[in-house]
Amino acid sequence: xxxxxxxxxPTARPVHPALAALADLRxxxxxxxxxxxxxxxxxxxxxxxxxxxxxxxxxxxxLRLAEAGRRCGAEHADAVRxxxxxAARADPDALTRVYRQGTADERRAVLYALPHLVPGADxxxxxxxxxxxxxxxxxxxxxxxxxxxxxxxxxxxxxVLKCLFTGVRVDKITDLARRAHDDSELARMLRDFAxxxxxxxxxxxxxxxxxxxxxxxxxxxEIGIDGKES
Length: 230
What we know:
The protein is mostly helical. The chain has helices at residues 22-32, 35-50, 60-72, 74-87, 92-101, 104-117, 124-132, 136-142, 145-150, 153-166, 176-180, 184-199, 206-214, and strands at residues 54-55, 58-59. The chain has a domain at 1-122. 63% of the residues lie in helices and 2% in strands. Strands 1-2 form a two-stranded antiparallel sheet. The two termini are 33 Å apart. Mean pLDDT is 88; it is low at 1-12 and 219-230.
């Protein structure tokens, strides 16, 4: 829900760039940005929509991605960048270029933009790259709706363990309950991980038990005679 607060309200909470509809992102920014920032965003979106030219080898909208934090504030930069990428109709090649050449903040915005811009698995390599890093903000951003739809089970299970290992909260993982449900292999991996931590005298993350509970099948008394949940 987007609340009607003034741009100066320090309690204003951004909507999630990967989970919210694009119209909701724009509405939230219109409500919370200052007048100057709103005007800058409008110009940036117009430039991205029209592709009005380049500055050397870099398109104008790519330059605007780099400016987003300074122009609109760090708390809104992710949403601003997702809107610019969408206005530019960035395809997997363009998203890959921005991801490879951009800062960590720009890479995170690309990951947030994937579910809005790429219907198939053509950009899955960006998710896989983010999951290989030790940047916890990139790891969390990579496990949004796009990964929930396209990441293979083996890779997804290892991504869950990486979250536990690096301290990324598992509530950042989109569709965790659906994908973990009745996953006996994930349960085995979680138990092995817990045993390794215990043997090494290290604490087991509380989130591990939360995920382990999600892997369980429904209790027998909740299953009807036809094998369906009652």
